[in-house]
Amino acid sequence: MLVVGSIVIRVSDLPGQLVFWTAALDYVAREPVGDDFALLHSRSGAGPNVSLDAVPSERALPPRIHLDLYAEDQEAEVARLQGLGASVVPWDRRPDDADYVIMQDPEGNRFCVVDAAGWHGFEWHRVVPLA
């Protein structure tokens, strides 16, 4: 059996990205934080770990993989993330009825904020933590 243990994001500025992602996700870093690696986990215990790996890598656009972050209040979350240093990525082919906003962290790692408030059957408390 396999489970996702951690989603790894390559970064250049580990301290800066540590500040952004812990605030963005309400995660905390597992101690000790290394010079080139940090494992973040949810304060509430819900959701997968996110690791920050300070290894030089080329950014590919569009990225081959990205995070979809589900939001109960998409507009408020987009604004909050912008306040933390993220930016909205304009895309002229985004459908008018899209339920997602494409964003990027301060280093340009892309993610989407998905409006999940109206999802039938989706219960926020049922997001189960990984052991």
Can you walk me through this structure?
- The chain is α/β, with parallel strands linked by helices.
- The protein has two domains: 1-56, Signal recognition particle alu RNA binding heterodimer, srp9/1, CATH 3.30.720.120; 66-118, 2,3-Dihydroxybiphenyl 1,2-Dioxygenase, domain 1.
- It has helices at residues 14-25, 74-83, and strands at 6-10, 27-29, 37-42, 49-53, 67-71, 87-88, 100-104, 110-115.
- 17% of the residues lie in helices and 28% in strands.
- Residues 125-131 have low confidence and may be disordered.
- It has a four-stranded mixed beta sheet, with helices on one face. Strands 5-8-7-6 form a four-stranded mixed beta sheet, with helices on one face.
- The radius of gyration is 15 Å and the shape is globular.
